[in-house]
Amino acid sequence: MAGKVPITVAKGDGIGPEIMDATLHILMEAGAQIEPEFIEIGEKVYLAGNTSGIGPEAWESLRRTKVFLKAPITTPQGGGYKSLNVTTRKALGLYANVRPCVSYHPFIPTKHPNMNVVIIRENEEDTYAGIEHQQTPDVVQCLKLISRPGSEKIIRYAFEYARTYNRRKVTCFTKDNIMKMTDGLFHKIFDEIAAEYPDIESEHWIVDIGMAKMADTPEQFDVIVMPNLYGDIASDVAAQIAGSVGLAGSANIGDQCAMFEAIHGSAPRRAGQNLANPSGLLHGAIMMLVHIGQYEVATRVHNAWLKTIEDGVYTYDIAKDRPSVGTKEFAQAVVDRLGQRPEQLPAVDYTTARERKVSAPAKTAPRPVPRRDLDGVDVFIYNAETSPEALGRRLEELAGPEFQLVMVSNRGVKVYPGGFPETFTSDHWRCRFQPLNGREMSHKDIRSLLERVEHAGLEWIKIENLYLFDGQRGYSLDQGE
Ligand code: NAD
After folding, report:
1. Across the strands, what pairs with 409?
2. Sign (positive/negative) of CA torsion 268, 265, 86, 55?
3. Cis peptide, bond prior to residue 278, ω within 30 of zero
4. For residues 408 and 417, what is the distance between their CA atoms, to the nearest angstrom?
5. How many Cβ atoms sit within 10 Å of the Cβ of residue 134?
């Protein structure tokens, strides 16, 4: 129909179909100009043998409508099934995950009556790139990837969000006291971009104490931006302490596509009983209405929801020991209040210039490509039998004439030369070779080194080249080095 915006809708698994029906009922009654296209994803698709949980027709719809309203899905237990959420976010380039966590005191019990925090999480990188390998019988690894463009995009998005929604402060959480290069880059870029927004306060916390503070005094925070894994954990903590994980919605925003959902899962134990709270998905849907520019409908739905909460209509999860209603009755109560505004809780207004869609972050000017010099190689060796001393001495003999063995480490701790007998070692050794006397080195030198290692009967499992970027070390030193 003319004027209606096509959106792709997945009803999902578990409580998904009930909360999606409730949400669509409210949107349609509120006059949302949308044309849902239903796709099948999740458990059924996985169990039919598609390990990604999503088929080609679903991708076709998503790539055409570019707007996805998604109920939670169940990822079957067991190996081989890829997370559909992670796949969708990455395939559609949904780099920003936005999760507002608000308390509704005194109507919904919470220890934090003045909480209003927005967690903005990087959605594509970090350990969620999902690059994992088993390298030896004892050791598996997961690559943590943080990129400059990825970090710039999400951090700019956080500041643009703060500006659009008239928020005073953006806080960054990282663990850069330990991960000086990956989290260090995220923090550095945060400081660079914060300087471009002098109207907005900025601060950085180490993630562990920052998260503890957020759980204790969330009213001290406003917008918090962080890498993927920390944001995943922090947003569940924030939603739960605000009142319930059943309340918070989530927007996944990309340059071209966007996906809207609840932050909670498919709660299979509550499925089919008309019990689940549809509010998380409804909050996701309100963010979708703002995204497609239907500001009046978004305002009407959000204010009707706030009035419903003020009037004491609750699903079981927020009722606690008070009377509760089912999913359908809750949705009907919101429909009955369309056109009303809350009296005690602050009303929202997406029709003003503020509280609207966040403009796409400006692109950063291209940076000069730094000079890159090869400065050595870390050769990883699988060896379950030798002692650090024996391995170190053997490698020293193999190093020349191009290299010197600088150190051998095990699980990031230097064990040769001069290790401690107390240090526990696994079967996975990192052996650092660097050129003798500042000699220039090439990939050919590395290949000859690896050949010598192989001829000596040692098994190398991978290498990492060591580079200097404009003369600056592009690799970490080991603990004890
Ligand atoms: P969950 O969020 O589904 O449920 C945890 C508990 O929270 C439930 O038992 C229920 O008591 C409560 N709860 C959650 N949502 C509620 C609601 N709307 N109303 C009332 N109570 C609610 O987490 P889980 O049990 O760890 O995961 C179940 C399944 O969901 C798993 O298969 C998981 O992979 C999947 N999951 C999907 C998504 C998604 O699709 N975005 C997100 C998280 C988990």
Report:
1. 414, 430
2. positive
3. no
4. 7
5. 9
> Buried b / exposed e across 345-380, counting CB within 10 Å, b at 16+?
beebebeeeebbebeebeeeeeeeeeeeebbbbbbb
Question: CA torsion sign, 99 to 100 to 103 to 108?
Answer: negative
pLDDT (tens digit per residue) in 34-43: 999 999 999 8
Beta carbons of 108 and 244 less than 8 angstroms apart:
yes
**363: pLDDT strictly greater than 80:** no
Predicted TM-score of the model (pTM) = 0.92
What is the position in ligand 1's atom list of the atom closest to the CA of 279?
A: 18
Contact 381, 454 (CB under 8 A): no
Residues 239 and 341 in one domain: yes
Query: Measured from the CB, is residue 246 less than 6 Å from ligand 1?
Result: yes
Task: Report the C-alpha gap between 19 and 413 in whole angstroms.
Answer: 50
In a domain, 185, yes or no: yes
pLDDT 10s digits, 249-305: 999 999 999 999 999 999 999 999 999 999 999 999 999 999 999 999 999 999 999
Structure tokens at 64: 């055409």
Q: Taking the alpha carbons of 309, 315, 317, 321 in that order, is the dihedral positive or negative?
A: positive
Look at the block and give the residue holding tokens 């947003």.
235
- State both tokens at 51: 């390990």
Q: State the CATH number of the domain containing residue 411.
A: 3.30.70.1570
| Domain count for the chain | 2
- Asked whether 97 lines ligand 1 (CB < 6 A), one says no
Tell me the CA–centroid distance for residue 426 and ligand 1, in Å.
37
Nearest CA to ligand 1 atom 10: 267
**Test site for ligand 1: of 252, 266, 315, most ligand atoms within 8 A of the Cβ:** 266
442: containing domain? 372-473
Same domain, 279 and 378: no
In a domain, 362, yes or no: no
What is the DSSP track for 344-369?
SSPP--TTSSSSSPPPPPPPPPPPPP
Amino acid at 306: L
Q: Which residue matches tokens 């999606």? A: 20
Shared domain for 123 and 215, answered yes or no, is: yes
The gap between the terminal CA atoms of the chain, to the nearest Å, is 68
CA-nearest of 118, 60, 119, 52 to 88 is 52
Residue minimizing CA distance to atom 37 of ligand 1? 265
